[in-house]
Amino acid sequence: MPTIQYTGRPGVLDLSWGHPHPDALPVDGWAAATGAALRELGWRALTYGHEAGPVELAQWLCERLAVTDARAPVPAEVFVTAGASHALELLSTQLVEPGDVVLVDAPTYHLALRVLADRRAELVGVPPDPETFGETVTRLRRAGRRVALYYLVPTFGNPTGASLAGDRRRALPAVADRLGVTVVEDDTYRELAYDGPAPPSLWALSGGAGVVRIGSFAKSVAPGLRLGWLTGPPALVTALAGRGYVDSGGGVNHTAAVAMAAFGRSGAFARHVASAVERYRAQRDALVAALGAAGVLSPVPAGGWFVWLAAPGASALLPAAEAAGVSFVPGRRFFAGGGPDDHLRLSFSMLGPADLAEAAGRLAPLLRAASPPPS
Amino acid sequence: MPTIQYTGRPGVLDLSWGHPHPDALPVDGWAAATGAALRELGWRALTYGHEAGPVELAQWLCERLAVTDARAPVPAEVFVTAGASHALELLSTQLVEPGDVVLVDAPTYHLALRVLADRRAELVGVPPDPETFGETVTRLRRAGRRVALYYLVPTFGNPTGASLAGDRRRALPAVADRLGVTVVEDDTYRELAYDGPAPPSLWALSGGAGVVRIGSFAKSVAPGLRLGWLTGPPALVTALAGRGYVDSGGGVNHTAAVAMAAFGRSGAFARHVASAVERYRAQRDALVAALGAAGVLSPVPAGGWFVWLAAPGASALLPAAEAAGVSFVPGRRFFAGGGPDDHLRLSFSMLGPADLAEAAGRLAPLLRAASPPPS
Prior knowledge:
Two copies of one chain form a homodimer.
Chain A: E1 13-14, H1 27-41, H2 55-68, E2 78-81, H3 84-95, E3 101-104, H4 110-117, E4 122-125, H5 130-142, E5 147-152, H6 166-179, E6 182-186, H7 202-205, E7 211-216, E8 228-231, H8 234-241, H9 244-249, H10 254-265, H11 268-293, E9 306-310, H12 314-323, E10 326-327, E11 329-330, E12 343-347, H13 353-370
Parallel strand pairs in A: 1-10, 3-4, 3-5, 5-6, 6-7
Antiparallel strand pairs in A: 2-8, 7-8, 9-12, 11-12
């Protein structure tokens, strides 16, 4: 039984893990924030917390989102969660009944597919094109199916690194609202924007109706804290706070939440994110440049942790790649029910520039062999 | 929007809250433990944790349970949770299907009833008498019902403060195992034993088969941490660790878990619990003595936080009690579907001895009037 989830493999530069760089975790800063919250709030930092989260964190979050998004929530629109995965579990418990259809982007975050499948929903992949989305909902409803929600990662997405284009960003929530389908927007990567600000969230563009946006401190601060949040309609926040489990235990991660409020208010959060952005931008640049130098054309994600490479037969490439000392996630795992075997996901989060360049050098010959240049 | 869940009411000595005494929360100790874990483990305290919980906490827990229970688990039997309420939510998601029957003790912890009801189970109250329990299961199965689990708080129980007697403690898990019904044992109050050691858990008596025992640090250390654990069959631990939500987010409260391991290993946990036991024993004694001095016969709970008083028409007493400046929870709330209105629950956890004596003095005349002595 180990301490952490990550397990390294000797000799393999493993670009399959969407985990933070060890040096990007604020070891001293978190001890200081915890100490500050305990000094400031005393016993109130340790007793049962307010069900929707402590006011200190909700208020600071509203201020932060006024900077990083196009619309700031009010505290009544905020529910503090025990991480983004917990938020998705909680939302699916609240919104999805067994046998429902859950629509998901194609491709999308592969472990979100597992969270949703645990609810015994049928997952149907649909790209975030408003017209296709609307047609799919209509077709499913004609067949007597209930469509519970639409899940996507529209900003610096996992696995593609891409963001939904502006016209679709505006149209999609409008169509979903008209059809009465809740959009669940996984906005985990908003703080990791490398080439200018992140685009406005679907939640902001929707005016707060019909979209629930999941945020997280896992990428911006530290995943082990298991601390995240969501913004959504006040009635949903009230419903989540009223679940028996939340009423019984109080705020779902109270002590970490008040420590994060201290981390935010002290300025440590902003400094830490700025430093993480520098780090991950440099890592992205190193990976993209090394791939390019080795003859592999790569998209340049404007944020987040992932590069999505065209790679015909990606699954079959994996054993050869691992034999060459590099690993990745085959792209078809990011589709509900499996998808085309023509891409792979590289994560540049865990390794420094030199390791990423070496990894690109190991991978590129295999990719070039798999995709011969057009003759 | 407040910081914490508790809301005080001016002029009311409120014995309805099962919350810790503010002075019993280890404000300095928790800052020290968090700092120690971060110094010792560095980035590994902050990244995604092992799904079932970090080995450091699992091992320490096994050592602690060797002292406080009749059987110590091995780490493969331990799953670290985000509190006892989270454990019950997680177990009900794993074990209960909508429409199932969930058996619950009568009376039992009222908010557990809400957690289980959220799963759309039908709750059926049955006392922990092995014969009645077995007959109830058989009757329900004959009627075509699936019985998902049996929930109870058999040690220093909520709301009664009582513990299941030795002969039933041994027989109940045996009957449940023979019938194939999982017993979910809420063992939240084990550390708060005032008159000698707590009785062995049902989990320990069962030899580990057919019983899942929920433990918590909410009463022994601090509820705001949202940290607990369960002991159960290794196959269940593996199944919980394999849920999409846990695979996606890693250990459900990793940083708090490694800090708790540091708190435990340093000796701070044992010292803190010893001090909390002294405090709560003095509070229990003050309440029971003041009730007795005012002519109200009270049971003397050997652990936990609650006194369960006979009080005919308890619900109707509540407004008069609050007008007199004291509050409680009417007993019928602790029964699935409502129960007899003949008891009330007093919690002695939040108030010091003088306040508890004053509260007893305010309440006793009402109780005496409601239960005239036999003529």
